[in-house]
Design a protein that fits this description.
single chain, 172 residues, mainly alpha, 70% helix, globular, Ubiquinol-cytochrome C chaperone
Length: 172
Amino acid sequence: MSIFTRIFRNRPDPREEMRPLWHRVVEVSRNRRWYADDGVADSVGGRFDMIVAVLSLVLLRMEKDAEIAGNSALLTELFVEDMDGQLRQSGVGDMVVGKHIGKLVSVLGGRLGALREALQQEDDTALREVLERNVSFTEGSQPDALARDLRAFAARLDRIAPEDLTGGRIDA
């Protein structure tokens, strides 16, 4: 086998294994309940906030299990790929896409850390504060219902077998 064959042979993209989970994260983030019942703004900002919240909870679940923890990087790469495509589709030019992606990844990292800390608390006070700072709500909405529903979602994720999680078989 020549060096070029070894370098350029078609290898399956390891991210493809995580694509069903990424699609499910997006589906869950679009659940009507977040917007109609929990007061998240049904806007570009609100939808992004819910993608990041749901993705963060999934990533937190993945880091609890050594069997699948390494796949969190692949899932994050799919997030970046999707956001890159969304930015380009909305007219953001090549010259600044990277800067925008850097900001979005930074947002994900910040919310991941904030949710990790808040979910370790017994009551929802810290979680409500995180959501109040980081989620676009409709006017007059409070983060109480969203905090309760996200904590319940995180608890459901904790009960899912690793292969079901990575396969995207999660309930909203």
